[in-house]
Amino acid sequence: MEKRAHERVKTRYMVKVCGKLGVISDISSRGMQISTSLSPKSRKVDIILENSGHLIKLLGVIQWIRRRQRIQAPNQIGVIIKKAPPEYRDFVNEITHH
């Protein structure tokens, strides 16, 4: 049974997390799962994504980390979005309704 209150959608979308490249693997209005080589020093992370030429800046808090054993494999991080502009909600709506 799904325990999330907000619908999440599988996707493949490039982002920057604390300046490092990452790929969103699923997203909702309240959070996202990101694959990245980042080894976080803090639970707070800055996330930047681009949509139609506009940068959307987010502030998130890492809820969990799944570290990969192989060097080539990225870490998986689950992030709750704490601060986002209205454009983020529009971006998520665009993804979830297509």
Please describe what this structure looks like.
The protein is mainly β and 98 residues long. The protein is built from one helix and six strands. It has a six-stranded antiparallel β-barrel. A hairpin with a 2-residue loop joins strand 4 and strand 5. The mean pLDDT is 88.
List the helices and strands and how they pair.
Blueprint (H helix, E strand, L loop, with lengths): L8 E9 L2 E8 L3 E6 L7 E8 L2 E13 L8 E9 L2 H11 L2
Antiparallel strand pairs: 1-2, 1-4, 2-3, 3-6, 4-5, 5-6
Q: Quick summary of this structure?
A:
Helices cover 11% and strands 54% of the residues.
Distance between the termini: 24 Å
Helix and strand run: EEEEEEH
Number of strands: 6
By secondary-structure content and strand pairing, the structural class works out as mainly beta
Content of β-strand:
over 45%
Rg over CA atoms = 13 Å
Q: How many alpha or pi helices?
A: 1
Catalogue the unreliable spans: none
Strand order of the largest sheet: 1-2-3-6-5-4
Shape: globular
Q: Output mean pLDDT.
A: 88
How many strands, what sense, and barrel or not for the largest sheet? Answer: 6 strands, antiparallel, barrel
Structural features:
98 residues; mainly beta; 6-stranded antiparallel barrel; 1 helix; globular
